[in-house]
Please model this.
Amino acid sequence: MSDELVVVDTVGTEFEADAVCGLLREAGIECNHRGATSTGGMLGGVGQGVREGVGRAADAERAREALADD
Model:
């Protein structure tokens, strides 16, 4: 199984990213989030800025399906 990380969702704040990862974890999918590499930094302050929800490549399709169902 690949441990390569891929982006499964992109959201506008850290708070949204926490919620996305929470939904995925409830579905049994490991998730973490990071600052989006395309934004060049923070946009407003604490909790602001584009975030990428990332998971293992092997789980990406299932993760996207779980997020689409929500």
Remarks:
- The longest helix spans residues 14-26.
- The beta strands are 5-13, 32-35, 48-56.
- The radius of gyration is 12 Å.
